[in-house]
Design goal:
mainly alpha, two-stranded antiparallel ribbon, single chain, elongated
């Protein structure tokens, strides 16, 4: 088999010249491609982490373990339990010093009546699935329903 010198040189050059053109053509597609699009759960978790860092981190800490005897940890049964109770705590706060895992925490949870329903949905989905927790996601309809019952 005889190799044509022109083909031997031209094909690799064609490939090298084509790759940048292909990459430029694909550059504006990152948000539209199905492999890049995030699931609603992932979007809620990512958004919830942002809300957590803004609203919750100073008291409950980066690891969700709170501050001993001051602010409770978030890896307790109340977090993975009744969603309505948890939503109510976010909206109305909590000034009762309930015992959690044999400890009583001194700080009160401040009320957050102005926090948006979607932010509550996201932050609670994040908390209920972080810090060792595994629980169902919170739906915005559950937040809306609970908020209307609290009024």
């Amino acid at each position: 088999m005889k190799i044509n010198f022109r083909s031997f040189i031209c094909i690799p050059i064609f490939i090298l010249l084509s790759v940048p053109v292909f990459l430029v053509a694909q550059s504006g597609r990152e948000g539209n491609h199905c492999a890049v699009k995030k699931s609603p759960y992932r979007v809620s978790m990512d958004s919830g982490k942002v809300v957590y860092k803004k609203q919750c981190l100073s008291c409950h800490q980066e690891d969700g373990l709170g501050i001993s005897d001051v602010n409770p940890p978030l890896n307790v049964k109340i977090v993975t339990g009744d969603k309505m109770k948890l939503i109510g705590i976010i909206i109305n706060g909590q000034n009762t010093h309930e015992e959690l895992n044999g400890r009583i925490y001194q700080n009160t949870m401040p009320a957050n009546p102005d926090i948006k329903d979607q932010e509550i949905t996201n932050v609670l989905t994040y908390i209920r699935n972080s810090f060792g927790n595994k629980a169902s996601a919170v739906k915005e309809s559950e937040v809306k329903s609970t908020r209307s019952k609290l009024k």
